[in-house]
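The passage that follows is intended for readers who have already worked through the single-chain material. We present the inputs for a multi-component assembly, then the predicted structure in tokenized form, and finally a short commentary. You are encouraged to pause after the input and sketch how you expect the pieces to fit together before reading on.
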Amino acid sequence: MSDAIKVAGPDGSPQEFPRGVKVAEVVRALYPDRAEVTVAALVDGKEADLQVALQADVSAFRPITVDTPEGLEVLRHSTSHLMANAVKSLFPQAKVTIGPAIDTGFYYDFDVPGTFSPEDLARIEARMAEVGQADLPFIRMEWPKAQAIAFFREQGEHYKVEIIEGIEDPIVSIYRVGDFVDLCTGPHVPSTSRIRAFKLLSTAGAYWRGDERNPMLQRIYGTSFPDRASLEAHLRRLEEARERDHRKLGRELDLFSVQEDAGGGLIFWHPKGTRVRMVIEELLRRELLRAGYQFVTTPHLVRRDLLGISGHLDFYSEYMYAPMDVEGQQYIVKPMNCPGHILIYRSALRSYRELPIRLAELGTVYRFERSGVLHGLLRVRGFTQDDAHIFCRPEQLLGEITQILQMMFAVLRLFGFDRYEVYLSTRPEKFVGVRESWDQAEAALADALKALGCTYEVDAGGGAFYGPKVDLKIMDVLDRAWQCGTVQVDFNFPERFDLAYISESGARARPIMVHRAILGSLERFMGVLIEHYRGAFPTWLAPVQAVVLNVTQAQEPYGEQVYQRLLREGVRVERDFRNETLGHKIRDAQLKKVPYMLVIGKREAEAGGVSPRTRAGQDLKCMPLEQFLDRLREECRPCTEGLLG
RNA sequence: GCUGGCGUAGCUCAAUUGGCAGAGCGGCUGAUUUGUAAUCAGCAGGGUGCGGGUUCGAGUCCCAUCGCCAGCUCCA
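Having made your guess, compare it with the prediction:
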């Protein structure tokens, strides 16, 4: 046995190292410029700590650096151990459970008698900093299960014992940092000095193993970054998100409210919010009509039996409100629009010549959500879907899906969402319909996406039992993803409702049904929009597009003329003729994020013009009213012109 | 729903160990006639979420209840 081993270098060529060489030394030799940011390595596909001694040839070797998501995860996971170390030393009675890295940081769940106060968090953070300074190494050990169980049982760490008992491997890995010993797969950073920029953010209750029947643990959330600057950037982003909170902006801009007297999760759209909503609704109506959709209106209350035919009672009842008794019949408030649309389809014998039939409705539905999950406009109990159901022949499916996706992308671009994540969910293990139909539908979805040059991820087996689907998540300016549009092929309802059309040959045939929504819920979409624009809607969407401001009361009559003229032109205009200084009125309009402030003083009145000031603070100087109107019309073109040419 | 935190004027927030419920903004009235992010003065506005209790005395302490906020999905 030779004393040398071969490790694949950056170009794949084998490099010689002494047997037992540490991963860290290999990194230093092969990737000298990245050694500083390396926290672990991928050795033949397995993550390894830097202090692991290599005993055999390695055919694939790659450092894991903190500037990658996996490296960041290692750093954060190590930070959670550092935090657990600090908690155990300050609260010796605390029992540790799990402490993984998450997308934005890490958490660790503890079983402690009380709760952690903000002061406790500060103490823990201070202790973490001390331990970090001490530069304690993370030491990996491998113990037989029995030894690990005995050790943790002796420590009274029964959650750990429970975890280990569930592990199949006879050997478990253990990490020690200072006095703190934890069961962990690793890898970890080599020592605590690598943990340089972290912050504990919040505490929360969390059930052991996420099950509400289990004891409630105390969770501490924190985050960790390779350097101070990234941490601070992250904290600024959190602050930014708070500033953009649609609930705060909704109140400040008087867009909507939720009323305690009416109940949670039920939205009251105020005049300003309704104006924005109307712009969106009118745009959708116009575009859908142009695309060959027909609008329908269906009742909010239907017999409960209808939901029995659709099968909703079986798989959706937890979201439905209790039925009400109407002259001995059970009625329910509709949780979805599809059954109503199906009844309209079924109200006549359909010919293949009529298909596709595209029925659209801005349909308001009510779904039960547990009180704790309600959140502003983003999670509500009553909402309006931009819903539509398409009934088509199999050979029309690809065309229909393509049209839907085209419209979806066009609409989202219009609202300033240029980035999205697209998921294609395919046949699950349990499904209805025949395999060939599924294959055809999945192919149609995939082909349509490809034809549009859209990159997507496949969620294999992630489709609903009734059909495959494409989901769209939009990314807002803060890189947050929001579920919006969806296209779902449905083989189930046509069967259950026995839908049919008469084919070319005169035979009865089964149509394919497609459910689709572009924005999803108007409530949720507006919540996302408010945050996306920070309440400063572009002119075409703004609830108030312009406000007329007089310099002195002498200009009030002229200001009124301007106001009336703009109103007649369809401009969403307001006037502020209060007895205040111009500066004051500008400030107020600015805080309301109105795109244009029309200053009217002596000069403007004499010239018969207006001096617009933009929300950005630019003075456009005195211009004729017509010129201002042209400018407004130009800015509203994206919404007035039509999306698909 | 569960765990924790928080509920004071329309909004944002004060109120010492239990000791007279306050301010700013907003609103109203008046003065001022204002040129690109807050003119000045005065006035009104409150069973401190709701219901009990302890106390000479409760915004403050206790119990119950309603609502809001965060988390409860990330799994050694």
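Commentary: The first strand of chain A starts at residue 4 and ends at 8. Residues 69-90 of chain A form the longest helix (22 residues). How closely did your sketch match?
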